[in-house]
Amino acid sequence: MSGIQLTSNKSQADKLSAPWQILLNHKALRQWLFFLLVSTSAVAGISMMTHILKANGLTGLEVTLLVLFAIVFSWIVCAFWSAVIGFALQWLRIDPLSLKRSLALPEDSGAPTQRTAVVMPVYNEDTRRIMAGFETCLRQLAQTGHLAQFDMYMLSDTRNPQMAQAELDHWHAMQQRLGELGKHAFYRRREKNTERKVGNLKEFCQRFGYRYENMIVLDADSVMSGQAMLQLVHSMEQNPKVGLIQTVPIPVRQTTLFGRFLQFASELYCPMLATGLSFWQTDSANYWGHNAIIRMEAFMQHCGLPRLNGPAPFGGDILSHDFVEAALLRRAGWDVFLLTDVRGSFEEVPCNILDYATRDRRWVQGNIQHLGLLTGSGLHLTNRLHFLFGALAYISSLLWMLMLSLSSADALIRATTDNDYFNQTYQLFPNWQVAETGLINALLMCTVVLLMFPKVLGVLLALKQRREEFGGAGALLKGALAEALFALLIAPLMMVYHAFFVLSVFLGYQVSWNAQEREGRMLSWHEAFKRTALASCIAVVWAVVTYLFAPLMFWWMVPVFTGVILAAPIVRYSSSLELGRLARLHGLFISPSEAAEPQELKQLRLRLANMPQQPAQIAFTPMLPSEQWREMPTQSFDTLDTAEVLASVNR
């Protein structure tokens, strides 16, 4: 059990428990420890690269290469140490927030005293899926026996008239099934979807926020168990300084080969990585936009987002709102935590590489926009790092691409240029070219360890604590090996996509934020070639030229060339439902949600199977509770209000 919920003693509900005091006392120490680990490792790697490049004198091209390497290597080191810390804490079963030994989660911590709204914003989604997920979550809450303290809202921004009518029809049919439970379910559709999801949630808070102390935000594909939602509410009640708690949503219900690969990798590595992040982020964690609980009053007072000045990519509406809302809450003195031990928090992910890349294209634009907020007034350093790291997660692909291009160019120049050993007028001895072979091999090995060792740690952790959840040790090891090879194969293709997306954002190209495809589908050869042909052709030319003039460089680049040249068949066959079925049949990529299906996922599956495709159309107007309008003050990143500063200090 997390340190965020350490006691159920009602007399202590209004004050922080001792572990929280310990957490705050150690916050700076933790962050300095993390900074020390990252900085010393990064400096060591950059020093090695500097010695390699300057052995024969640094050219302008090599200086550029060194700068790119420094950025990318530092980014890799950051992820590595987060994983190592997460591994150590999970291996020892130590909670990352309280630094206490984790305890078994109690089945029931009593009735919640605060009222909570569970909201699901939707936009042109698969109607049957969102209704099935919504109903599952509602019935899960009913099974806890505490539904009286909850209401659930479907907040529709759907623009398609046929889909909007289908939502109404399915909503009416669901209300008939729910009976008395339906009194806690509400449907509201906006006529104009201004400000996208941000505006959707903002309007809900302004109209109905006065009724609730907390708000659990779900995505259209989210599923949460009743116990998970109840645990979040109890955590908010027992820690009044907390403004937001983010859980770790795990992908489920994947049927294609690519989807099952993502699902398996997320279950195997994400909890460990999240634990490491939670350790050093402490009370300044991030918000991922869903499967999280938010204190309503804090959100309404401090998370009214402004429209940013200037043109894209840094101006306009704030696209990736979640990072910014977490930063604003922390600026106002509210704690934001990442709770890594909540079971029963699920989501769905795109089922093929092209849909996955399309989703990333939207995130690239939103995360790069955050670079313009790095100097925002009053923001905590950790939140500025969230903005920077979020952008680097995608910009690093462009930097990798530039590094590979410059390295190839340097190798080609050296291979096609005669060496000048006497480059001065009066010179007795020649300037021999120096090859730092030992340093090159050492740096290469260090980079491989930084990239691959976290995967090894994740497997060791699962073997020790959760092997049966992955179908046994054999299935776990088989899946981990296949995951590592497949990740190595598709990494160059994802690098190409992300590099292109980053360039397109900086060049001012906009992207529409539409509903993402989640259901499994086999891509056609036409789709696969259309989205990969140009990159594959460039890779073929690059490989041939490198092989002819710099064969040693070619062999180092073979893994990169292979993934991009074979992109079309990789994209098509990884989207195969049949290969996904065969993988499961032969015990490949078995995840815990398959080895022992959670009750909430079983209910969702059965509900989808039994739900009618097209319920009868009945003209009706869904009922909504009484509303009381309250404004959400628009925040500024240029100045910090004096009253807000005082409130932050007092809190």
Automatic annotation (TrEMBL):
Pfam families: Glyco_trans_2_3. One of its GO terms (molecular function) is hexosyltransferase activity. It is found in: Cell inner membrane. GO terms for cellular component: plasma membrane. It is a multi-pass membrane protein. It comes from the Bacteria. The keyword Cell inner membrane applies. Residues 216-408 form the Glycosyltransferase 2-like domain. Pathway: Glycan metabolism; osmoregulated periplasmic glucan (OPG) biosynthesis. The keyword Transmembrane helix applies. Its main location: membrane. The chain crosses the membrane at residues 32-53, 65-92, 387-406, 439-463, 470-490, 496-513, 533-550. Belongs to the glycosyltransferase 2 family. OpgH subfamily. This is Glucans biosynthesis glucosyltransferase H.
